[in-house]
Amino acid sequence: MNIILTNDDGIDAPGLQALQQAVGGKGIVVAPKEHLSGCGHQVTTHQPIHVERRAANAYAVGGTPADCTRLALSHIAPTAEWLLSGINAGGNLGVDAYISGTVAAAREAAIQNIPSIAISHWIRRPLEIDWELATRWATKVLLELWERPLPPKSFWNVNLPHLEPGSPEPEIVFCRLSNCPLPLEYHVEGDLFYYKGEYAKRDRAMGADVDVCFSGNISVTLISL
Fold first, then answer.
1. CB-based burial of residue 176 (10 Å sphere; 0-12 exposed, 13-18 middle, 19+ buried)?
2. How far apart are CA 119 and CA 102, in angstroms?
3. What pLDDT does residue 1 have?
4. How many whole angstroms separate alpha carbon 198 and alpha carbon 97?
5. d(CA 66, CA 98)
6. DSSP 8-class letter at 90
7. Which regions of the chain does DSSP assign to beta strands (E)?
8. Distance, CA of 173 to CA of 221 (rounded, Å)
9. Quick check: helix, strand or coil at residue 222?
10. Is the preceding peptide bond at 87 cis, omega within 30 degrees of 0?
């Protein structure tokens, strides 16, 4: 299978390495040079995009995750059969799908009629991500999703839970995308507004992806354009 791997945490991020391990070290990496979390579906159209070949199958792009998908599918790997984005360090649940660069890369692939999967890992502080465990869970999810039909102009959005060591193995739960808003809390100092909303305190619509992931399971949501 000819696979493109990308993310929004940057080409050197441990989550991207974990994703590559989940597919047995295969795939063509086309990822941003810099950390661009939260950039959404921004694309570069009014200035050149620098592409640096880091290895035989790895390209660092001076652009956004959506740029990476566009360049990968148009020039670097035009025969790709799948695009995988992640593993993002942080959840991309519910309305995060509109903000996330990780999800945008997968959405852009769906726009271009290429099946895609975005994978993220919720962070429950003060816990640290166990990337070996994340790789194992991602492998399990990919094997499941590759066996399922994916409708045209759609993609899978996956979120891994953050569990205490020794917790039961999470289940894969197919669910809907939550449409509850993120917390809107700011600390104000003069003319400066500092966002201080707590991700873990967001609303949890029963049975939607936020609730599933926060409850300790792997949420899988089908998103259509």
1. middle
2. 8
3. 73
4. 17
5. 13
6. B
7. 3-6, 28-32, 51-55, 58-61, 82-89, 116-121, 154-160, 172-174, 186-189, 192-195, 218-224
8. 9
9. strand
10. yes
Q: What is the largest CA-CA distance in the chain?
A: 55
Residue holding tokens 């399971």?
217
- pLDDT tens readout for residues 110-142: 999 999 999 999 999 999 999 999 999 999 999
Residue 133's contacts (CB-CB under 8 Å, 6 or more residues apart) are none
Q: What is the pLDDT of residues 151-164, one digit of tens each?
A: 999 999 999 999 99
Residue pointed to by tokens 């990476």: 68
Give the amino acid at 125.
Answer: R
Q: What is the pTM of this model?
A: 0.96
Going across the sheet that includes 154-160, the strands are 51-55, 58-61, 28-32, 3-6, 82-89, 116-121, 154-160, 218-224, 172-174
- 116: tokens are 């895609």
d(CA 12, CA 101): 16
For the cut 90, the answer to whether the pLDDT of residue 216 exceeds it is: yes
